[in-house]
Amino acid sequence: MAEEVLVFGAWGSPFSRRVEMALKLKGIEYKYIEEDITNKSPSLLKYNPVHKKIPVLVHNGKPVAESLVILEYIDETWKDSPILSKDPYERANARFWAKFIDEKCLSAIFKACWGEEKEHEKALEEASELLQFLENELKEKRYFGGETVGLLDIAANIIGYWLGVFEEASGVELMTREKFPKLCNWANEFVSVSAIKENLPPREKLIAYFRNRFGVGTASK
Amino acid sequence: MAEEVLVFGAWGSPFSRRVEMALKLKGIEYKYIEEDITNKSPSLLKYNPVHKKIPVLVHNGKPVAESLVILEYIDETWKDSPILSKDPYERANARFWAKFIDEKCLSAIFKACWGEEKEHEKALEEASELLQFLENELKEKRYFGGETVGLLDIAANIIGYWLGVFEEASGVELMTREKFPKLCNWANEFVSVSAIKENLPPREKLIAYFRNRFGVGTASK
To answer: Where in the numbering of this chain does the GST C-terminal domain appear (chains A, B) (predicted)?
Structure first.
């Protein structure tokens, strides 16, 4: 049966890029539909009535929303090139840290880059503390997933690519090589993987987008 | 090999009760350690240095934190009496709605019960809208998991038991039988399952705890 795989996304979103990265890693063909997040399409609202957000994966007519949920769905539906280990403990770890990135790191990074001036030092320190956990979690591994890119690497695309963009757009220095040598090495490795590289929005365009959307960063105020 | 399974929890927490419910459903013996959340133990801080929160499951010395992550770990480690379907789409649905309960419903319910007085009507309406999604998701099923209790039922323990406690403690009426007949039936079925019933904190004690902690509800102000 010919499969129909649709991805509703936005070009600059790390969340819909996650979905595309996983599909590319597994060699699954899909049709990409760019959403205007200021004027959402009836299809998006139909497929994700709860959150009304990208990304949504629609597989043979059935929608799945929430990027981390989609990643697991992809891994369980197309089993080649797994992005989660078979080992329950490693799977739990990947899920734990992916959740940590979405629920803790992202808002801390935003606050460090574009938060209130008077809280800048504190926000910077908090974001650094969170990144330190990820630095430690890398241990001596090439990727979070071990020898190959896995779910946690994909979830960490925010750290591996978008963070550098946020830093440049806001003028804030956060993930320095001195403090985070492993994360920096990992980021370099990560963006060199072809399925990942093909799914990164152009850096300059992204910097312009975030600068335009969130203004000058806290450090430059 | 004799397995060691520890659960760090707090008696009134729906989150650590989730872990106990899953273990009980699967017939796994465990040792329960009650944490004083106002004075956390060195063990808890060692096992969950990131969030410093219960619940933590420690299996043969290895800690897993975050209740939904723990539920998946339990299901993958002890495969009898599965709490997730084998079907990737049903699994994705269960994960999606469990996440929805934690990230959307819980805060909306709290706001409806103990939020600011001037926002009470709006908060009540918002919480009702969210519960309506769950009402619809039940369809004609006995449990969210179908014929047996699954991960989403366990995650929904907040709706199935704690919500009634919140209502009584705060004096707010939210999940009425008129508006949510399916959810009300489900809640009755859910709390009648023996592995669940054994893991519910005493209702009166819980009401007193929440009344004491959060004070008189918005509706009574």
So the answer is: 87-214
pLDDT in tens, A161-187: 999 999 999 999 999 999 999 999 999
Residue B16 has pLDDT above 90, yes or no: yes
Of B77, B102, B125, the residue at which a domain comes to its end is B77
A93 and A154 share a domain? Answer: yes
Q: Which residue of B has its CA nearest to A96?
A: B69
Is A73 near chain B, with CB under 8 Å? yes
- What's the CA gap between B36 and B40, in Å, rounded? 6
Both tokens of residue B187?
């809640």
Chain A partners of B72 at a C-beta cutoff of 8 Å? 91-92, 95
**Do the interacting molecules here have an ipTM over 0.90?**
yes
**What parts of chain A have a pLDDT lower than 50?**
none
**Closest partner residue to A95 among B72, B88, B104, by Cβ?**
B72
pLDDT tens-digit series, residues B26-51:
999 999 999 998 999 999 999 999 99
Q: Given the structure tokens 């600011």, which residue do they identify?
A: B116
Cα A133 from chain centre = 17
Strands across the sheet with A62-65, in order?
A31-34, A5-9, A56-59, A62-65
Whether residue B54 sits in one domain with residue B121: no
Q: What range defines the domain where residue B150 resides?
A: 88-220
From A197's Cα to the closest Cα of chain B, the distance in A is 27
- Residues of chain A in contact with residue B77, where contact means CB-CB under 8 angstroms, are 88
Amino acid, res. B135: E
Chains A–B, number of C-beta pairs less than 8 Å apart:
54
Q: Mean pLDDT throughout B189-215?
A: 94
